[in-house]
């Protein structure tokens, strides 16, 4: 697990086992890995928020945050410190238990999904052989958090937001699932590291599968954006209609959890796209194939940021959909196209006309 | 059949939108509209049509164009302008005539409607572009627009 260039983890592993009994050392290792992922989670979340604000500004001819630190790079850290120091407040008559539980649902779902990503050849928390299926299952847990939070808030706007999120997630999960399935058909494996190995010899899957893969990618991006509840599918928290939707009543760190989870979900969707379509941590055309010291994780991060940029581009370009338009898009367009696409992909593989 | 043309036109219009915003994104350096205000105070240029406050320009001989006709005072809907005038002997002609003593302008009451400036027959008052009008004492907002010792520019009244 996790021996990035210097195989530092092996050193730590040997050292831990030399100073304490085996059981304690294993647990310590688990805690260290969990801490590493939590740190990654926090940093990625904070900097995605900053990136979002910067990119939003640039799309609108503005400069964005530029006061805290050079180019405003400490802005979101300052925001997070402010949120940590704020009181966690809840209304009278909220369902206390569920109200406090909801943020953890959302954040734990995101964290669990992070664990299975192969950031590089060695940097993967948990290489499970049903990786894609696991990802898909875990990423749907988050919506329970939203539903619970909206229900427990005892606020009609929160409830409407939560119900909309349920509706949206149930609809779009289908499209995400089917477009992933199309790619699984091509790669022939559910294990994420295996999927990347397939792409090492045959080229990235989006090129291998040509037309059906490109259609699947487009559908995945649309449905994935809807899954993360981002604009143009943000009717869950439509500011002009519902206040902040399901997290209207949350304050302080609980609010921050919802907020960060949204950005981590974006990261997760982008990561799935990178693994399934763009070869994960593989370099384009194998240009850094022979260079052993080159951190492959860099390629992964670069690709993920490209996809995230695309999602932000969507967000700051398209207007929000109405609920009926949302459902029309899914059930009348995406789903039938997806089914046809799945068959198309099967035919392409059967006739052996993949590239 | 409209099903497929819907898909086509949908994708096409979405891409059109993305081209516009993408263009903004790559040209941010040259087209940015944010003014880094306190930093660029020295070079900041407000727009021509910006209404900061009413001022009365004076030329290098300390002469202004206000005849004291009171049109602006009458035009002002909320009484922000007071003209104090008296009859004096004009040194050039030796006749008595109406002359301005003080053009008093209450910035604190002004709604920036511009009626006084439209009403002035001799264009004696104009808009200034400054906007840093905060003061510690509101009496500082009552301004005398004609400078002390200034007089009417010759030839305005004809
Ligand atoms: S701008 Fe309007 S309110 Fe202000 S002094 Fe002139 S007439 Fe009066
Ligand atoms: S500023 Fe213009 S309108 Fe007002 S008193 Fe002077 S000349 Fe008349």
Describe this structure in words.
The complex is a heterodimer of chains A (355) and B (158). Chain A has 355 residues and is an all-alpha fold. Chain A has one domain (93-350). Chain A is 68% helix and 0% strand. Chain A has helices spanning 8-19, 22-59, 75-84, 96-115, 131-139, 142-152, 156-187, 192-202, 205-208, 210-227, 239-242, 252-277, 297-315, 323-350. In chain A, 41% of the residues are buried. Chain B folds into two domains: 2-31; 54-149, Alpha-Beta Plaits (2-Layer Sandwich), CATH 3.30.70. Chain B is built from four helices and seven strands. Chain B has helices at residues 2-26, 28-31, 71-75, 115-119; strands at 53-55, 63-64, 81-89, 96-106, 126-128, 142-144, 151-152. In chain B, strands 3-4-6 form a three-stranded antiparallel beta sheet, with no helix packed on it. Chain B has a two-stranded antiparallel ribbon with strand order 1-5. The radius of gyration of chain B is 26 Å and the shape is elongated. The N and C termini of chain B lie far apart (78 Å). The chains are: A mainly alpha (355), B alpha+beta (158). At the A-B interface, α2 of A face α1 of B. The site of one iron/sulfur cluster has 13 residues of chain B, from α4. Residues 66-72, 83, 119-120, 122, 124-125 of chain B line the site of one iron/sulfur cluster (SF4).
